[in-house]
């Protein structure tokens, strides 16, 4: 297979990953709003798809981090480099499908980053281990912790204020606010997750010999067509909706009302924007949203939280990165041994 044809194939796989990312992570933006009946399921998914598309076009910092912050672009060249990138994408895509089938919220971001590191290591590319804590591990750990604590504190404060308010009328107002916060979350999801696909496509284009994309060992620009196709693939996946995971996030962590849903989604959105615009760090929208819902659910009475569901999500948080890395490493070792 020629380099150009292989480059095109890996780009198609990357867009397939973005599509699975969309339907796998649609729940992050809409689960709370659907659970509290602030919006209908189909209306929420349509809104999320449009805002995922728009959010994907708002920045490129995360894409540049993924494109050159994990693997040395000088080592990901030619057919071998394309096989490394393709192996990482296949492993991450497979992990998305497996966890979606089980209805388990897991991080597409963690899967992709782990898969890139594993595929690079097995394929003979230099992995920037010294950068991983800064660009991946620390943000991935801190974002759900911040989401949980902030949502718990804000929900407690809000509950104190709401105690003197008429419940029915207040919840009607919060359903409107919750629709707005869901839109903010969808925009932030597009801003974060489409850029991760953009970063791998950039890495693929450099490996395939595209010029003008790499300078001083780093990918430093994102072509408009890469931004558009990545955004469209993510939005299309979101529109299809991952109902299995929507049920887990929206109904199985904790029973929440509209005020709690508003807090959880608002906190999650702020974390996503801060990570993307301030540090260009890829964070997990899935674990940020799940942690914020848990924090909001903990505030009234901790026993309302389903710790079994939280435990399953925490388990996926721990195993996603190494599991995707191991699968990608085995695949990369097998295919690069042929060239």
Describe this structure in words.
The chain is mainly α and 339 residues long. Helix content is 77%, strand content 1%. It has helices spanning 3-35, 41-56, 61-68, 78-101, 108-123, 132-162, 167-207, 224-240, 243-252, 258-279, 285-298, 307-336; strands spanning 214-215, 218-219. α2 runs antiparallel to α8 (224-240), α4 runs antiparallel to α5 (108-123) and α6 (132-162) runs antiparallel to α10 (258-279). The protein is elongated and about 70 Å long. It starts with a helix and ends with a helix.
What is the terminal-to-terminal distance?
Answer: 11 Å
**Rg for CA atoms:** 20 Å
- Unreliable stretches: none
Number of strands: 2
Strand order of the largest sheet: 1-2
Assign an overall shape. Answer: elongated
Q: Main sheet? A: 2 strands, antiparallel
Q: What is the H/E order?
A: HHHHHHHEEHHHHH
Topology of this protein?
Elements: H1 3-35, H2 41-56, H3 61-68, H4 78-101, H5 108-123, H6 132-162, H7 167-207, E1 214-215, E2 218-219, H8 224-240, H9 243-252, H10 258-279, H11 285-298, H12 307-336
Antiparallel strand pairs: 1-2
């Amino acid at each position: 297979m020629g380099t150009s044809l292989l480059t095109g194939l890996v780009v198609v796989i990357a867009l397939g990953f973005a599509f699975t990312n969309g339907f796998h992570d649609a729940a992050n933006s809409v689960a709370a709003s659907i659970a509290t009946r602030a919006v209908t399921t189909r209306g929420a998914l349509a809104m999320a798809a449009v805002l995922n598309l728009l959010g994907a076009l708002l920045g490129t910092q995360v894409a540049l981090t993924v494109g050159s912050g994990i693997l040395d672009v000088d080592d990901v060249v030619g057919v071998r480099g394309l096989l490394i990138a393709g192996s990482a994408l296949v492993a991450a895509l497979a992990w998305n499908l497996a966890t979606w089938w089980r209805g388990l919220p897991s991080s597409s971001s963690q899967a992709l980053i782990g898969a890139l590191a594993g595929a690079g290591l097995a394929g003979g590319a230099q992995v920037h281990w010294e950068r991983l804590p800064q660009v991946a591990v620390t943000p991935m750990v801190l974002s759900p912790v911040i989401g949980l604590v902030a949502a718990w504190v804000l929900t407690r404060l809000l509950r104190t204020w709401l105690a003197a308010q008429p419940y029915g009328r207040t919840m009607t107002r919060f359903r409107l606010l919750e629709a707005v916060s869901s839109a903010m979350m969808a925009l932030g999801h597009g801003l974060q997750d489409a850029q991760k696909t953009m970063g791998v496509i950039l890495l693929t284009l450099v490996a395939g010999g595209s010029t003008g994309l790499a300078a001083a060992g780093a990918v430093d620009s994102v072509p408009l067509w890469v931004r558009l196709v990545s955004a469209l693939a993510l939005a299309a996946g979101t529109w299809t909706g991952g109902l299995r995971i929507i049920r887990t996030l929206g109904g199985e962590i904790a029973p929440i009302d509209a005020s709690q849903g508003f807090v959880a989604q608002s906190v999650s959105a702020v974390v996503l924007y801060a990570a993307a615009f301030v540090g260009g760090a890829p964070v997990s929208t899935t674990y940020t949203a799940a942690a914020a819902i848990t924090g909001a659910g903990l505030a009234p009475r901790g026993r309302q939280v389903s710790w079994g569901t939280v435990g399953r999500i925490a388990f996926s948080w721990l195993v996603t990165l190494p599991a995707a890395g191991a699968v990608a490493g085995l695949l990369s070792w097998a295919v690069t041994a042929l060239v």
